[in-house]
Amino acid sequence: MMLPTKSQLRIPQLASLLSIIALLCACGGQANNRQDQSTHPPAPAPTSNAIVSFDKPRDAYNILADSGGFKVVDKSTSQSTGVSLAVNAIQFKDVRINVRAATQSQQLSMNNLNQLTELYIAFFNRVPDADGLVYWIDQRAKGQSLESIANNFYSAAVLYSAQTDYSASMSNADFVRIIYKNVLGRTGPTAPTDTEVNYWASQLDQGSITRGGLAISMLTSAHTFEGDASYGWVPQLLNNKITVGNYFALQQGLNYLSNEDSISKGMAIAAAVTPTDTSAALALIGVSDTNFTLFNAAPNKVSIIKLATLPNPTGIKFGFWETFSKQDVALSTMGKRPTSRVGFDNWASIETSKGVYDFRAFGASGSMENYRRVHNYGESIYAAINVSFSAQITPSKQTIPQFYNGRITDPETRLAAKNFVYAYVQHMLKALGNLTLTIDYEIMSNYRLSAAGSESRANEWADWYVEAAAVARKAAADIGMGDKLKLQPIVNSNPLDPTNPISKGRDYNNWLVRVVAASDSLALDTYHSDPSLPNTDPQRTFDIIRFWIDNFSAGKDVIVTENGFNTVTEVIPSITRADRDWKTTGTDTDQATYYKLLFDKLAEANKSDGIFHNQLKSFNLWSIIDNPAKAANDEDRYFGLVRLDGTEKPAAAVVRDALRRYENDAFTRPWNYVGLGNDVTQNFSDTTTIPASLSYSAGDQFELLRYSENMLPNAKQYLFNVSLNTTASLILCVNGTQWLYQEGKSTYGVDVSKYMKANAANTIDVYVTNSFFPSNVIVKAIQLKKI
Questions:
Q1: How far apart are CA 85 and CA 298, in angstroms?
Q2: CA distances from 748 to 375, 696, 729, 732, 762 (A)
Q3: Which is it for the CA torsion 657, 658, 661, 663, positive or negative?
């Protein structure tokens, strides 16, 4: 698993005795007289007025920090004490804060800071103390190489062998095994093989690298496994340890008051970190004052980090039907979404005469523009093309052109349908780059497969679908885009109704088994409720999803393309769910309650050992806004979370809070960040402009720039300027909550004044998208202009 990366850091140097002594003081004290040695680096002892002391533990206080200093507030008495920035430290009964930690850290890039924190993990498997980390920040800023520092850490680790397991007499192979344990978390069942150990140990045996250098190489190699199916958890664990370590030492500036606590408690905090969770480790730190950060007292510094994401294999992508073109409403109310249910195309509207496809008119009608908008807003497409629907089966549902026989079983019609599917797929892929496509939407109702005696029709349609799916895949492959097309049937109806043939399960309905086998995933629409339960109870939704998963998913991903709650009762009280075939219906308040109960249970249901077996990969709500195409007395108008006048129904806040909760959870969030990002601040300095590319491949796979200033100066106006190498769409997220969108330009000046907070930390996430995925756009310049 742990093969070297192409670029390896190999700068062997011998550590001098002086460096080792400096290290020992900075990393937890000298080997001798450990009981008395403090944890700060060699420096003149602080004078009494350089430390302000308080007689209670740190968590008994809240601290407010700004450019003028600190205000320490006793939680029990509300007594406030001002502390000047001139002091060296603030000491409590249990810890000491190095008030300069954040300021000193600004000497290095984020990448270099993280490398130092990684050394504490590699050699001590603990979080750094602030004093020690600040010392090594200074040494690195003065030019000491990372390998020289790593060798100093190794020398100290040997002297603390009881805690670290390193020893002067250990073999190279044993050294490598400890690095695997500390850095990669690989022990027990995941312990490295002899082949893996020997690969690294042989480099030490040959003298081609020092032990400090080898640790750096293994750390570098670990990060190359981001997103790996087998070992992706390794860099996630390392990144989470770095995040907790930097929080402890730089944001909070903490030091324990004895060497023993620095080592034992620092190790306990690191040990509590997992690849998917940092909450237990943060709880061990014991500081509930999480709003405090030393960076609020540090000089203002611009930081630009390039981040990348990959799909989270356990996550759920939440999207909406955005009422054709209301992506702006979804973005402003719910934030950037990973998916969108869009499009109800049909064969008859595109093939105007035999063999003639009017895709120009298709585009002019707005259909293609709806798809392009979805990509411009950074969302992946769930599309549908209706081909085989026949008035002979379902009156008013004809999608076969009138100049063909109206049944897909007719040989001429079938051949024409396959030719159309071939042309349609290629047209869509050439215009959009990638998409997930349904051939024949909501087949249970549109082909009347829920009716008793529909078994022969079901097999008729399945035969057609399997052929059409093969044609669609060939169309994609023939233009070199075979991996850009995904297929999924959309089933609907109430499969728990005993009169519905599908209720008889998998063995009775081999037609659907064949359809799913020809597809990449199984999608479903569900609106039914249980008449015996309150209209707000989502139990029937869970039961229906479970039925489809257990009976027909064949272990493949399952997508809920539509689920919603109709609030027509709020407007027309006489209409209830009893009038709508017991589909989810009620008042505005009922809708909010339904969604709260749904989201409260959904995460548990989709755990690996839950009723959905973690197969539910996307859930799309119908819809973001009420449907303006429907009349006021049309019951299908009122599914939205937002009314047509722009006001939010109560459910909007419920869903928004739920999405934030799900998307901040390591298991349910739709994407994972690849590492901790790369610091590209210098790319956009006043003296240097090195363009940064941003790619956007899917709603859960993209790159972004995170622009931040930790202490924003006062200004009358803040204008965020972005220059690109080509026309593209720009999405901004200001301070984590305010989403902005502009399109159609290569140079943007976005007024963000009303969203910025002067004399505080501010962050702007920058996404660049296009209608064709994947897109790759160069950011030439980026600046927050203060006017």
A1: 9
A2: 19, 19, 10, 11, 19
A3: negative
Structure confidence by residue, pLDDT tens digits, 10-38: 222 323 433 443 343 344 333 333 333 33
Question: Letter for the amino acid at 467?
Answer: E
User: Which of the listed residues 646, 669, 692 is the one where a domain comes to its end?
Assistant: 669
User: Nearest CA to 26 among 83, 86, 98?
Assistant: 98
User: Are 567 and 434 contained in the same domain?
Assistant: yes
Structural domain of 697: 672-786
Span 494-517, mean pLDDT?
97
Buried b / exposed e along 624-663 (16+ C-beta atoms within 10 A) = bbbbeeeeeeebebbbbbbbeeeebbbbbebbbebbeebb
Cα angle 203-205-207, degrees, rounded to a multiple of 5: 70
Q: 469 near 417, Cβ under 8 Å?
A: no
pTM over 0.90: no
Spell out the residues 6+ positions from residue 360 whose beta carbon is closer than 8 angstroms to its own: none
- Report how far residue 189's alpha carbon sits from residue 154's, in angstroms, rounded to the nearest whole number: 27
Q: Residue 32 has what pLDDT?
A: 34
Query: Please, are residues 346 and 385 in contact by the beta-carbon 8 Å criterion?
Result: yes
Torsion of CA 293, 297, 301, 306, to 10 degrees: 0
DSSP single-letter state for residue 47? P
Distance, C-alpha 147 to centroid of its chain: 33
Q: Which helix (H) or strand (E) holds 111?
A: helix 110-124
The first and second tokens of residue 554, run together, are: 């064949």
Six token digits for residue 102 = 């954040």
Same domain? For 406 and 293 the reply is: no
Residues 338 and 670: their CA atoms lie apart, in Å, by: 8
Cα separation values, 480 from 381, 382, 426, Å = 20, 21, 10
pLDDT at 122: 86
Q: For residue 15, count CB atoms less than 10 angstroms from its CB and return exposed for 0-12, middle for 13-18, buried for 19 or more.
A: buried
Contact 466, 515 (CB under 8 A): yes
| Rounded distance between C-alpha atoms, residue 305 and residue 318, angstroms | 26
CATH for 659: 3.20.20.80
Q: Is the pLDDT of residue 484 over 60?
A: yes
3-state secondary structure of 692: strand
Query: Among 540, 554, 658, which residue's Cα sits nearest to residue 603?
Result: 658
Statement to judge: residues 36 and 166 lie in one domain: yes
404: amino acid identity, one letter: Y
The whole-angstrom separation of Cα 226 and Cα 673 is 9
User: What pairs with residue 341 in β-bridges?
Assistant: 321, 382
Q: Are 449 and 458 in contact (CB under 8 A)?
A: yes
Contact 543, 494 (CB under 8 A): no
Cβ-count burial of 608 within 10 angstroms (0-12 exposed, 13-18 middle, 19+ buried)?
exposed
Residue 136's identity, in one-letter code, is: W
Please state, in angstroms and rounded to a whole number, the distance separating the CA atoms of residues 132 and 622. Answer: 54
For residue 264, give the H/E element and its range. Answer: helix 259-271
Q: Which two tokens stand for residue 577?
A: 């769910």
In whole angstroms, what is the distance from residue 671 CA to residue 652 CA? 23
Last residue of a domain, one of 299, 330, 347: 299
